[in-house]
Amino acid sequence: MRTLTLLCAISCLACAQSDSLVKGLEAYQKGDLPAAERELRAASKSGDPRAAVFLALTLAATGRCQEAAPALVQSFQADAGDTGRLAGLGLAQCHLAANRLDEASAVVSALKSKYPADADVLYQAARLHMRAWNDNIYQLWQKNPASFRVNQISGEILETQGQFTEAAAEYRKAIEKNPRALSLHFRLGRALLMNSNSPEALAAAQKEFEAELTLNPSDAVAEFQIGQILLVQQKQAETAPHLLRALQLNPDFPEALIALGKLRVDEKKNDDAISLLNRAIKLAPRSEAAHYNLMMAYRNAGKMEDARREKAELDKLQKAPEGEFSEFLKKLGEKQPTQK
Amino acid sequence: MRAAAILTGLALLWQDHAAKTPDFRDVAVPAGLTQAFPNGGMVTKEYIIETTGSGVAFIDYDNDGLLDAFIGSGDGAPSRLYHNEGNGKFRDVSAAMGVTRNGWAQGTCAGDYDNDGFTDLFVTYWGQNILYKNEGGKRFRDVTKEAGLVQDRVRYNTGCAFLDYDHDGRLDLAVANYLKFSFEETPKPGANPYCWYLQIPVNCGPRGLPFDRNILYHANPDGTFTDVSEKSGIGAPDRSYCLTVLAADYDGDGWTDIFVACDQTPSLLFMNQKDGTFAEEAVLRGAAFDDNGKAMSGMGATSADYNHSGWLSIFRTNFSDERETLYRNRGQGEFEDATLTSGMAHNTKFVGWGCGFFDFDLDGWKDLLLVNGHVFPEIERKKIDIHFKDRRILYRNLRNGRFEDISLQAGPAIQEKHSSRGVAIGDIDNDGQLEVLVNNQGEAPSLIKQSAGPQGNWVLLQLTGSKSNRSAIGARVRLTAGGMTQYDEVRSGGGFISQSDLRLHFGLGEAKRIDKLEILWPSGVKDERTGLEVNRVLTLKEPQ
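Above: the input entities. Below: the structure tokens describing the complete assembly.
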């Protein structure tokens, strides 16, 4: 928390009038919190609101949130500037420390609406949700250890870690406990596909998606997945009905529109493909797959101007973001490496 | 009666299938190819330079009619040249022939750049490339400096190809560049998000490392080269991590184009504008991405008219969790991703490298081999079905636009596990049956040969240019025999940064003669011959 305030403290130093305030901020900056508290208490007696806020931040940083809270709340509500932002962050931190997740959530929501792109705010939001996630998982395991949900959530966690075999095993346990629960067969099928695209894995995954459809005949995504498997299995003729069914169930399903569009390109039905892919782009304007396949369909139809327009869209979407590495990389590139 | 006929039919079908199931064996040890070639760590690899490995070449450097072998090495051992002794044996002639350079050898390509009748060799490096001038088949001399090929800084040169892009009868030289790398400045494993793979800290890159540009050297009449990368358009865009150069006439206009397989970035297709410049058109021509518009990790690339369409299609190897890519040429150099429809979409656990179309069963339809091996030896810690050392993949051409994966039935040499990189294909004993030389990281190479010859007829065409470059690189051949017309081109480079036999090999099935052979020489001379014999090496010279 103290580091969050570093930049502000420095900037405040320049405009501080009180000697104690300057000393207090310097001490805060150096991490000498007892000295900071002493100086800021002295400064706050003069009525300088900045001293009161930084004193509250110092108190919060040393675990005395109860004493800090009134000043933090006041500053957060009254000040739309940086001091208010710091006060809000301090307040959220206090609620999190006291495990008051609902209160912390309210403060973080307010912070996000006031400072939607602020890195410190987004970081605090991420911490809050991580804490909430951890707490709920812990409670699930503590209170319902035999529930299929425990296996389901374990599978989901293992999936995010790339441990697809283990994830599949958890989904199987969950299915055994609750054969009629929705989404389990779907997730199992997906984990199997993530682990391998071998013929055996494709067949096993297809069975799972079919089982999901038995439980939930309106699952458009399961229909789509079956279509994709059939495509890899070279069964193009059988693919289209599944994609069409997926689109009946959910007409606004861009992936299904793209997949069907690609099939139509292969079948040289360029007009159909163009229509499907334009629909996909309306739903998912940033889909590179949609723009790429529309470009190909236009090209194959001899509509080169349209194809070039789609290529330009694709180029825009694929332009590398100016990320944090860009400058570093540029500098590295300009150096003349020496030969070993 | 009918039942008996059905049974006979079944028996015949079985015989046909059994006859065509190949049995590939590794004969490197009896051939004398026993030297291991290091390429960085085999348990961990700290830098990306350890991952890309090296190419190989089949060239007949002394014109004795037998293919010799060059094998590139990573740092720690020299690259080596082996002479084909003619009895299935190879002899190390590296020192005697002056091929002794140590360092991080990458790609290799061959061509008679000085038109003296002896095939020269170009080897790329992380560091200074080498042009080995072949002096009468007696020795190779490093002429890099006098040829004007010294580079002003250390580059990560990778694939290369000789080509005559301006039809002046001299071989020019295209060189791909991977990225900017130095041991001092490249981050260490785990240093940033680009240095992790499946939660394991691994060597960094290519993402996160700076791009470099590709190079085109124009051959001058005096034996020197001039860097024309900028003027020709080859130097741009410098936004791809490029590996294999594959030069061929993709749009059938008689001028050589250049495809470059690139890693984690769009592959490039430079279309020859016939005025000394190229236009990069891979995206619109459908040869940059997969069918979702995503850049793949392109490593190796090879070309063939696999479907007898009269157009050269492109096959590219990619990374694990990606499909290989077959870009089918629809005509005029417009490609479409035919990976799925051709039956190649299921092998997604391999990191593919060297590859080559070759007609192993001599049925007149080009089959396809690719070799594999992950870039991260550390992957073995994960105990998943992706491996640093892995088997090869062999696809049989089903003659209908599709391929059948017969890897598991094709003999031990296809199933043995190595971390393989470069591949060269050629007929080392002129028996019409093609052999495959494979560079394996940290091990001796593989020399893959069928234990028994297939049944079909064949022909090997050795073309020699007169007005065109002597190697006849870029010559286009249309061969009609037994009711089939096949098309191919004499090509330098390709595979994965390697050089295959410069002679053209055609399986002819049951055809007893070649009805018609049409050659379009790079000079523009058209040459047509009829009634040629089969099962031999035909040496054909460009008409004066």
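Note for the figure: The two ends of chain A are 46 Å apart (CA to CA).
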